[in-house]
Amino acid sequence: MTTFDPRMTAYFGGEVLSAGFLPVPHLLLRCYGQLGLTPAQVVFVLHLMQCTWECHAPPRTVGDLARRMAVAPRTVRRYCEELTERGLLRMQPCYDTRGRQVENRYDLEPLFAQLAQMGVHTSGLRQEHTADAAEHAATSTGRIVPSTALAAARQGARIADVAASDRPIHAARIGRSGLNQRISNKKKIKKEKQNKEGLLLAEIVDEQGFSLRRGTRLNAVQLAQSRRLLERAGVEPPVRDWVAPSLDPAEVWSLRAYALALGWRPALLITQIYDKHTRSAQPASVLRSEHDCVGNALAVLDMDAAERLLQLVGQHCPGAYAAVFDAPPVRGGSPALRTAADALWAMVAALRGAPMVAPAPPSEASDDALWIEVAARLRPLLTPEEWTTWFSAVRLEVEGSLAVLVVPHIFARDYITATHLPALAAALTAATGRTWDLRIAIGP
What we know:
Helices cover about 60% and strands about 10% of the residues. It is mainly alpha-helical.
């Protein structure tokens, strides 16, 4: 039976200690703000320290650390990069005999070196706390410590201060200097926290993910849509959380349509977007440009409507065309729904053995089809509320080099002009490969 220090057992309890414990320097907890570390990064450092002290099954890979911390692997990688940039961590990748990376080695010696330098400057403060700690220990445990012992502790702290500096130090000067230093540190920490919050907000808005296949950045709205689509496709966590930041919602729709056509189960779909050996996301190599048209068309629709269209086409394609296009949801649906149905039918029919006719690119005469392409690029940049409020009742009309977005009222015209006109123009140019004289007009 393992016996621990009685003081530790009294404080933590034997059951807690039996699972293992980690020594943490006080300087790390007192000075991490001065090092520019956030509380989340400190927790990450503690997990790295645990790699050394845990003998049973220490975390070795980014995935292991992510599971321990209940975060995504990309968050762990970001912590590694940030600590490395600050000169607090050295990371060395390890490879197996076939050249594949299997784990990482983490060296926190630079962090401990900086803490040691801080310890030199805070030695006086540390000695000053000795007597207070003794008095607190006495009162918290109920023991009576003679006043002579407390006096001796305080006297010993003063003697240690004098010995360390070889000259007497006035207590008032120490207190004021320490107070000024703490105020300065608080201001510095507050400013760094504000900067970090600004960077975090920018990341939430602009840098939530990156499409490996398309090479485009994904915002928070797109990431949430991709995660929800993967959930509906039967992809379970943690794989869903690992691959969602690498997939545009339109890509997920394309992949789901592909899986529907061939009758894939979720496990086979997962193999297209997740490498189980490296435990990382990978681009879906089965998708082609003609499949992207289908994904873009489905991404514009309401998610439930797109799901019903998938089920309908999957059930009747390629033998019963009329059963799909004469069905009430499609026959009485919007132009966007009918365009998506045409594209999806063509894709599924081709994958099931019928000749595929790729959806034709929108022409200037096909205003509805052009708006589908533009909306597919614009909608992921907006929140669902913004899209429903300002763009659900608009239409696009083109003639020559003039493109007019017709909106129902003056409020929509003013808001779109002030807020979304550059993004709308960029989406229109990307969809057609040319520039337009874009205007916003009110109409029926």
